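User: I'm writing a tutorial on reading structure tokens. Could you give me a worked example: one chain, its sequence, then its tokens, then a sentence or two explaining what the tokens reveal?
Assistant: Sure. Here is the example chain.
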Amino acid sequence: MDADAVIKHNVTKQGHPKALYMLFMVEMWERFNYYGMRALLALFMISTIIGFSKSTTSEIYGWFTALVYLTPVFGGYLADKYIGKRHSITIGALLMACGQFTLASYDMIPARLALCIGLVLIILGNGFFKPNISSIVGELYEPNDPRRDGGFTIFYMGINLGAFFAPFVCGFLGERIAWKYGFASAGVGMLIGLVWYLLTQKKYLGNIGMLPVSKDTSVNHDELNKPLTKEDWDKIKAIFTFVFFAVFFFAFFEQAGTSLTFFAEEATDRWITLPFIGRWQVPTSYFQAVNPVFIVLLAPYFSKMWIHLAHKGKEPSIPNKFGWGLFLQGCGFLIITIAASLFLKSGPVGMLWIVALYLFCTLGELCLSPVGLSMVTKLAPAKFMSLLMGVWLMSSFFGNLLAGWLASYYESWKITTLFSVPAVLSICFAIVMWLMVKKVKYWMHGVK
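And here are its predicted structure tokens:
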């Protein structure tokens, strides 16, 4: 057994490679960095420092979050061809940290220039980081390993653990003290993750992901140089089918940073009474932590559930899981549509309406997003692994563009109309996905 095989088979009591948990920590800090910034970004842009309208803010936010998920296509290609996954992660982390510190420098250089440069650096850094760390997680498991979906669900929990803490730290510092401290704390989080990664990567990963595929001597290059077979092309068709449906899931899911943030700010009664403190208004940015806390609480159960169902031969197929993801999200937006109707009739609504929305969206997310990451590592030909991981992440590019476009109508559409669109379309796309299950499973050629 070679050194990398030993790494893969060095498992915890839960049966997953120890390297999974090392990558979990890296991803946790990277997401702390990103979601800490995201919790503040829209509020920062409508503040007096930047002075954008809600419509302009939504459009810029949509383009930014979209481009964050477009650059992984190029980052994945460069990693596969020239750089290697491991070096790409280092480059990406450094660029993202620099982006956060640039955002924090708005009082030293023109604020809008700092905003522009900072967002560009974060976009580029994410392109190098995101597809490659996910691809390395996939390399920890053998093909058709039943632990793979569960492993990605655990990895996804790391994403959301960082996203949970970020609004409380970065949001508090940014909203209550100064915006620059919120952005700077996000940058510090990324540096912590980078240091952890550099100190532990050799121990836990060996040589996995060090070399680009074209130079990796452990790879069968005769296999890589073969033209794609009909089965390979069918699997790629399946990937693009999942990408298409994911576009609409993320278009509605990403309302969290714009229209749902505006709703929390303006249409929600955020006052609570605390012992020894008295009346206290919950900061708007804190609502960005609701989805991650549900992920952290529920992801372990989903991980165990997929493995348990797989052992019994009852695990839903990937297209079935996607259908459930869309359907549950649609139910969440039905809830917030009702809340919006109540707001129009009688004023601000309770915070539990937004919590209920995020619960259903989280249940849908756990059926779709980590499963999508796992799906790519199962279906993609080896020589295009990081590239097609970038294509999967590109679903969020188009999704975020649509999200920004939809949220830009927050002030011009009736709010019940704005939220009923995601509700109806999510459920309709779920039905279409379920109708396509047989065809998509054929394209997958037995991959489970």
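What the tokens reveal: The longest strand covers residues 271-274. DSSP finds 17 helices and two strands in the chain.
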